[in-house]
Automatic annotation (TrEMBL):
Annotated membrane topology: Peripheral membrane protein
Cell membrane keyword on record: yes
Subcellular location: Cell membrane; Membrane
Keywords: ATP synthesis, Cell membrane, CF(1), Hydrogen ion transport, Ion transport, Membrane, Transport
GO cellular component, one term: plasma membrane
Pfam (any one): OSCP
Record's protein name: ATP synthase subunit delta
Annotated source species: Oleiphilus messinensis
PANTHER family assigned: ATP SYNTHASE DELTA CHAIN (PTHR11910)
Length: 178
């Protein structure tokens, strides 16, 4: 997987620079997210893997499916990716683009798994505390995981805060076993 990211990185950086210079980060983000979904479609994967099609035919097929969702620059990106046999990298390019966008906007996506539903007040309090701790704007998505027993597990990029009862019990068991 790291190799795909390495190959996708220059394309993501180029797309990011184009979007940043044109002040179109949100447009490019949406465009790449849509193209990523198209590239992951089973039928499209068959088209992209078809050795009897030329790179130009693959690019045209991809652009036809994305009709109206790709700007002229987005279509150019698809053509360049097709010429270099890299159309299957669009999901990785989209992911790397989102990381660059988050760095630029000084924001971070945070997922919170809790044992019970969080109220909007609890989410706001957590967002405020995390925003202060991480010195960034925080975008929260929360889900319920009843196996946690109580508490929550918070993930923000590489940072994981395990404040769940299950996590604390696991740490206690490890300490007793040592």
């Amino acid at each position: 997987m790291a190799e795909l990211s390495t190959i996708a990185r220059p394309y993501a950086k180029a797309a990011f620079q184009a979007a940043l210079s044109a002040d179109q980060l949100a447009d490019w983000s949406a465009m790449l997210a849509f193209a990523s979904q198209v590239a992951q479609d089973v039928t499209m994967k068959d088209v992209l893997d078809n050795p009897s099609l030329t790179n130009e035919q693959k690019a045209n097929a991809f652009a036809d499916v994305c009709e109206g969702k790709l700007s002229e620059q987005g279509q150019n990106l698809v053509r360049v990716l097709a010429e270099n046999k890299r159309l299957t990298l669009i999901p990785q390019i989209s992911s790397l683009f989102e990381q660059l966008k988050a760095l630029q906007e000084q924001s971070v996506d945070v997922s919170i798994e809790s044992a019970f539903d969080l109220s909007s007040d609890q989410e706001k309090a957590l967002a405020k505390a995390l925003s202060t701790k991480l010195a960034r704007k925080v975008n929260i998505s929360s889900s319920v995981n009843r196996t946690l027993l109580g508490g929550a597990v918070i993930r923000a990029g590489d940072l994981v805060i395990d404040a769940s009862v299950r996590g604390k019990l696991a740490k206690l068991a490890e300490a007793i076993g040592s």
